[in-house]
Write a structure and sequence with these properties.
The structure holds two protein chains of two kinds. By secondary structure, chain A is an all-alpha fold. Chain A has 19 helices and two strands. Chain B is α/β, with parallel strands linked by helices. In chain B, the strands form two sheets. Chain B has a six-stranded mixed sheet with strand order 2-1-3-10-4-11, sandwiched between helices. A five-stranded mixed sheet of chain B has the order 7-6-8-5-9. Classes of the chains: A mainly alpha, B alpha/beta. Chain A: It comes from Jiella sonneratiae.
């Protein structure tokens, strides 16, 4: 069989060794705030120059998969999203850790990442050429509809719809800082050239989630010093698993679809998966308080994106997300231009990368499971020392990403904002979603209007647009309807 | 007395430091600021360069530092405002040097740049997208003339080199086109392959796989002569339109570096950019290396800056970001 002859080289000891190394390296990079999977891949591309394609490219894939997974470690333990794709994992992962279930939360995240990753890898290996054309259907109108749908998640995510809307709209407003996507003019930068590209995203997230939590913890530390936290176990219980199955399936499918669509990545996927898991759950009120399916949904989705984003890259030469755009550089440096022709000219590379994706996902699972005991020891550190170390990490991580001092102001500013939001019950998640999707909605709305000559009909003219717009409408109306019905049922017995 | 002594010591120290800088250069690692994210074409080229450079300047270590943001303005500004001791250099690209200052909002001008050596150019090609109503240069021009302002040409960013190049071409060809800005070259290419725009600008290397797959069609090369990879694709010049455009990158530093340090650097970079290992690795990556000395590099930058200024004024975007 042809395929087998291309798969076997991946199991050569040196290739396995390099994939393992890449996966562990990615895991560490992902767990450290300020070092993202994108940077990990980018920085190691020059190293792959002298390597055989199968060796070099699979190392990069290992870093990618390890990196996206690694983000959940710091998200769960420290409320610091190691990579933007793990921001949604904070919502339930961190409360679980606070309840003394850090080990189990990490276990669930690892299992979910594994399931999502394998699911998408199967799709990649079997259906890549067939699904790739779906990626090309996305024009401005479709992207806008998708972004709009994503933004409506805010309504279902926040308990208080009004406060959620305020936080979300504030996020959209904040995301308009920087160069106008269509005219290039600078907006709301107050003459600070460092803000010309808007607020840097990772420092903003670190401030919003991590630094704000440091402030909250400080209040508690001054009040009393609690006992060191428990970090029992590693495998989620059978009941936890059973409860998480629907979230896992949804997360894997959503991650795969979002991964295929170019220009949208694991950040978007994990938020949509989280919101879908919550919406379809029988106990939505448990989400956000440390609920296993919450972790399962986000982590299965963001790791499904990895393999899925390779689909348009390998089949069409069009990167599925930021990391695969960088990975394209890794292919170019080998003299391999990704595109439909690559399937015919170098099937060994294509099949080798498919196989490498499986291997890296399996390594990720093994290392993740083995590492849980080690990772969660972080929480044995006395709170006051841990909290101060997180402050240091917030600053180092925010600076490392662009070496731009202005990003530190961004981080501190968002830290204070996040603290205020926590205090007054505004959803930080809503703000975060708006920061991701606001720019996508704006640029595509305006690009679409520009192309259609300000004709709004263009935005409802294709089936994909209509689908997402309908989903958006449902996602706003359902919570309202439920609230309304809830009120009437409560009201009835009183009469 | 004390004051005099201090002054003498200070003078001696300064003098000593000056001599040390000249003789011992480089005594510590040389930083090259890349004003873009890690993993892009400029970044990868710079990393290959850094490795080869160390062969040509004894005892040197070269470190690449990514400082992205503001379309390259932030990193470029950091280079031009660094201490002029030869330890902070940067990659100087067309956008931040020749275009951005015209919009205002940058804290540097082209006059602040010390040019050291040109590394290479990025050739540009216009591509017809899938489903576009033209398949070659003549059809493109005829269609654009019949439908003024209807041809939608994607570019890699508002006010970026692609948009300026396309408008400069339109001006010379006597046509009107509609710019559709995207967030980066790969987004624009994706839209082109998907048929959401009519045409887009790319580099010959990046477009090669899509052209081979017949997903897009080459319209013309923005050089004065055809290039070997695209023997059947015409230039605008041969079609009677005096238009060429390429973007470029080289090595720059702040003004005021000691002359001998500058000379040492210029020579080392000249050797680096002509090193067979460097040439081979760049070629494999699809990069077009073209060494020019400091003078030639500056001339190219000034020519493009002048041409861009005219287009930017025409577009009404001149000084739009000035404080």
């Amino acid at each position: 069989m042809d395929a087998l002859q291309y798969v076997l080289p991946v199991f050569a000891p040196n290739v396995l060794w390099v994939i393992a190394l890449g996966t562990i390296g990615g895991l560490i990079i992902g767990a450290l705030p300020g070092l993202t999977a994108t940077m990990g891949v980018a920085l190691l591309i020059p190293l792959t120059f002298g390597m055989q394609p199968i060796l070099g490219l699979n190392m990069l894939i290992g870093i990618y998969i390890g990196g996206i997974y690694g983000g959940c470690i710091s998200a769960i333990l420290l409320r610091t999203p190691g990579t933007p794709s793990s921001a949604a994992t904070v919502l339930d992962g961190y409360p679980l850790a606070q309840k003394g279930q850090a080990g189990k939360a990490l276990g669930m995240a690892t299992i979910a990442s594994f399931i999502g990753g394998i699911f998408a890898a199967v799709v990649l290996a079997t259906l890549a050429p067939q699904l790739a054309s779906f990626a090309l259907q996305f024009g401005p109108a479709e992207y806008f509809a998708l972004a709009l749908f994503g933004l409506t998640i805010i309504a279902s995510l926040s308990g208080d719809v009004l406060k959620g809307a305020i936080a979300g709209l504030a996020g959209v407003l904040i995301s308009t800082v920087g160069a106008d996507p269509i005219s290039g003019a600078l907006r709301y930068t107050f003459g600070v050239s460092g803000f010309a590209s808007g607020f840097a995203f990772t420092p903003a997230l670190i401030g919003l989630f991590a630094l704000s939590e440091v402030f909250v913890q400080m209040e508690k530390i001054f009040a009393d010093e609690g006992p060191a936290m428990k970090v029992s176990g590693r495998w989620p219980s059978l009941a936890d698993m059973k409860e998480s199955v629907p979230a896992l399936i949804r997360g894997s499918i959503i991650g795969t679809i979002i991964g295929i669509i170019p220009g949208t990545g694991s950040g978007t996927a994990s938020w949509i998966a989280y919101s879908e898991a919550r919406r379809s759950s029988k106990t939505p009120e448990k989400f956000g308080t440390g609920h296993m399916p919450g972790v399962a949904a986000t982590e299965s989705a963001n790791n499904a994106v990895c393999a899925a984003a390779l689909i348009p890259l390998l089949a069409l030469g069009v990167p599925g997300d930021v990391v695969t755009a960088v990975l394209m550089g890794g292919l170019m440096i080998q003299g391999l231009a990704p595109g439909p022709m690559l399937f015919q000219s170098r099937p060994d590379v294509i099949v080798g990368m498919f196989a490498g994706t499986f291997v890296a996902t399996i390594f990720m699972f093994v290392f993740g499971m083995l590492g849980i005991g080690l990772f969660s020891r972080i929480l044995m550190i006395p709170k006051r020392i841990l909290t101060m170390s997180i402050v240091a990490f917030c600053f180092i991580g925010s600076f490392a990403i662009n070496l731009n001092v202005v990003d530190l102001y961004t981080m501190v500013g968002f830290g204070v904002l996040g603290y205020g939001m926590q205090k007054f019950g505004f959803s930080q998640a809503a703000l975060c979603i708006a920061l991701i999707l606001g720019p996508m909605a704006e640029a595509n709305l305006r690009r679409g209007l520009l192309q259609s000559g300000d004709d709004v009909i263009a935005f409802v003219s294709t089936p994909i647009c209509l689908l997402f717009l309908a989903l958006a409408a449902l996602s706003i109306l359902l919570p309202l309807l439920r609230q309304f019905r809830g009120q009437t049922t409560i009201a009835t017995p009183a009469q | 007395m004390k004051l005099v002594l201090t002054a003498v010591i200070a003078a001696a120290l300064c003098g000593g430091a000056g001599v040390a800088a000249a003789q011992d250069y480089p005594a510590r690692p040389i930083q090259v600021v890349v004003p873009y994210s890690a993993g892009g074409g400029t970044d990868l080229s710079a990393r290959i360069m850094a490795e080869v450079f160390q062969k040509h300047l004894d005892g040197s270590t070269m470190i690449i530092r990514n400082q992205p943001g503001g379309g390259g303005a932030i990193g470029t500004s950091a280079v031009l405002h660094a201490r002029p001791d030869g330890y902070t250099l940067g990659t100087g690209s067309q956008g931040p040097l020749a275009l951005l200052p015209h919009y205002g909002g940058t804290d540097y001008k082209l006059d602040d740049v010390e040019f050291i050596a040109l590394m290479g150019r990025n050739l540009q090609i216009l591509l017809g997208c899938s489903g576009a109503p033209f398949k070659n240069f003549d059809e493109f021009l005829a269609y654009a003339k019949e439908n003024p302002g209807k041809v939608q040409v994607g570019n890699s960013g508002a006010g970026g080199a692609n948009q300026i190049a396309m408008q400069a071409f339109a001006e010379k060809a006597g046509i009107k086109i509609a710019d559709v800005p995207f967030g980066g070259a790969s987004e624009a290419m994706t839209a082109c392959v998907g048929g959401h725009i009519d045409a887009t600008i790319s580099t010959p290397a990046e477009a090669k796989a899509q052209v081979d797959a017949k997903a897009v069609t080459p319209i013309f090369i923005m050089e004065d002569k055809r290039i070997p990879d695209y023997p059947d694709t015409p230039t605008a010049v041969e079609k009677g339109i005096d238009f060429t455009w390429s973007s470029w990158k080289g090595i720059i530093g702040p003004k005021g570096m000691p002359d001998d340090v500058k000379k040492t650097l210029q020579q080392a970079f000249e050797e680096t950019f002509n090193d067979p290992e460097f040439l081979k690795r760049m070629k494999d990556m699809g990069e077009f290396v073209e060494y020019r000395d400091a003078e030639g590099y500056e001339k190219l930058a000034r020519k493009d800056s002048k041409e861009a200024e005219a287009v930017i004024r025409d577009l009404g975007m001149y000084g739009m970001n000035a404080k």
